[in-house]
């Protein structure tokens, strides 16, 4: 990402899309690195398998912010199946990038995964506030 | 009435005036507005203390529509005037509210004098996204590095200010209060420096809103230990930028910031000893 700072990325940095919590979400998930303290929290509002609204927040780096912004923009209004395939494609795409970008993407995608798990648990009667997934990578790694 | 909603609006007003000072070109107005933003930050601290004493919860959320961007200085001044007037409707009858209202009445008078001075309504370049550093010729790669550094660090400084702010009003010893104040003062200076640089480059933007997980720190020892590592990383980023950017003034600025980070580590170590 560092080599191709274009206007689209600048816009995501200045105004991350879908940033912030949702009221009454159907699922809340966290991707968290215990070691660095970084996290992404992901909110889903799903009705009839359609992601009517999504939101995220992070204390991570600019790559995490931009990936979260782009990913949420991509899946908002789409079906859960579409969102899962978009997540898979994003994972494949960043696998070709730097270790740092892979770590940032893992943080975003783990939070999304955790939110889906929480949504399922909630539908089954769980009263947990959220579901968290610990990740082994840190985004503060040297490239 | 003093409640979480009032805190949210005061937090936004502090941000509004701070970023208005970063965006305006006139140096006298810039300094005056920054002084006002410091007054607003003190209000915010007194308000948070009052809320804590009354066991009233508050957070760092903002209205999703809250924006600091406009090409016109007058538009931003008018927005500030309206926000202050709306805020005054929320103030109750207390010594703190009286103080805040009195200060803001003076801020309103000053803002109205700006609106009468037509020469001040020159177009603002702080949000034009041109990413042009006016003081030196930078390569594309230098410009990209500087852009990413500024976005990253502006957010970090804001985050740190609000974490220290949260911890300071919950501090248990005078030494802790003093150390948190030092760290906040340093971060305010960095926020101002980076914000003004972003405005010069046309990429001034609000830092992202903070999720409670960011500032409601339960394990302060772990936070400070991690914070020392983060300061080391910030030093390294400054050092890298200082050596990669081919402009003497910018390089020396980043060296200066780098050296300041070293002392933050010392203050954090003192805080660790205080826990």
Which tags fit this structure?
heterodimer, A: 143 residues, alpha+beta, Sufe protein. Chain: A, 4 helices, globular, B: 275 residues, mainly alpha, Ferritin, 2 domains, 9 helices, 0% strand, flat
How would you describe this protein?
- The complex is a heterodimer of chains A (143) and B (275).
- Chain A is of the alpha+beta class and 143 residues long.
- Chain A is built from four helices and four strands, in the order H-E-E-E-H-H-H-E.
- Chain A has one domain (9-134): Sufe protein. Chain: A.
- Helix content of chain A is 43%, strand content 20%.
- In chain A, strands 3-2-1-4 form a four-stranded mixed beta sheet.
- Chain B has two domains: 1-124, Ferritin, core subunit, four-helix bundle (Ferritin, Up-down Bundle), CATH 1.20.1260.10; 128-275, Ferritin.
- Chain B has helices at 4-23, 27-53, 73-88, 95-116, 140-168, 174-201, 212-215, 220-244, 248-274.
- Classes of the chains: A alpha+beta (143), B mainly alpha (275).
- Chain A binds chain B through residues 2-3, 5, 7, 10-11, 13-16, 19-21, 30, 36-37, 39, 41, 57-59, 61-62, 65, 140, and chain B through 61, 64, 129, 131, 144-145, 147-148, 151-152, 159, 203, 205, 208-211, 213-214, 222-223, 226, 230, 233.
